[in-house]
Design brief:
3-stranded mixed sheet, 4-stranded mixed sheet, alpha/beta, Hypothetical Protein Aq_1857, Chain: A
C-alpha cells in the first residue's frame, strides 16, 4: 500500500535519531489546479487506516485511502513527493471573458 524510496528511509532515520518517533500522517492538501498528498507528524485516529513500512507507522483516513489507492513516497530537492496510484482529478479555472483575465479575482 505504501512504498518508500531509500532516500526517504535515510531521511526518516536521520530525523527520528534525534526526535521521538511518531506516526506519519498522509493527508490531502489543496494545490493550484488539483490536490496533492502531503506528510505530517500526527497520531492515528479511530477513522484512520495504519500501515507499518520499514519500521515507520503511517496513517491516513479510510476514505482518502480509497480515493488514492497505493502511495509512493520519494524525496526531491523540494521535499517529500507523495504520489497516489490513482491520480487526483485536475480542476479547471472558469474564466469571465468580460474581465480579460482568468484569475479568480476578476473585478468588473
Amino acid at each position: 500500500m505504501i512504498t518508500l524510496s531509500e532516500a526517504v528511509i535515510a531521511d526518516f532515520e536521520s530525523h527520528f535519531k534525534e526526535n521521538e518517533r511518531q506516526d506519519i500522517r498522509i493527508y490531502i492538501a489543496p494545490a493550484e489546479n488539483t490536490s496533492r498528498l502531503e506528510l505530517m507528524l500526527d497520531n492515528a485516529q479511530e477513522e484512520d487506516m495504519t500501515y507499518e513500512v520499514s519500521g515507520y507507522r503511517f496513517c491516513f483516513h479510510k476514505d482518502l485511502m480509497k480515493k488514492c489507492g497505493a502511495v509512493t513516497i520519494d524525496l526531491s530537492d523540494m521535499g517529500f513527493v507523495v504520489e497516489p496510484s490513482i491520480p487526483f482529478v485536475k480542476r479547471t479555472l472558469s474564466c469571465n471573458s468580460q474581465c480579460g483575465s482568468c484569475s479568480s479575482s476578476c473585478k468588473k
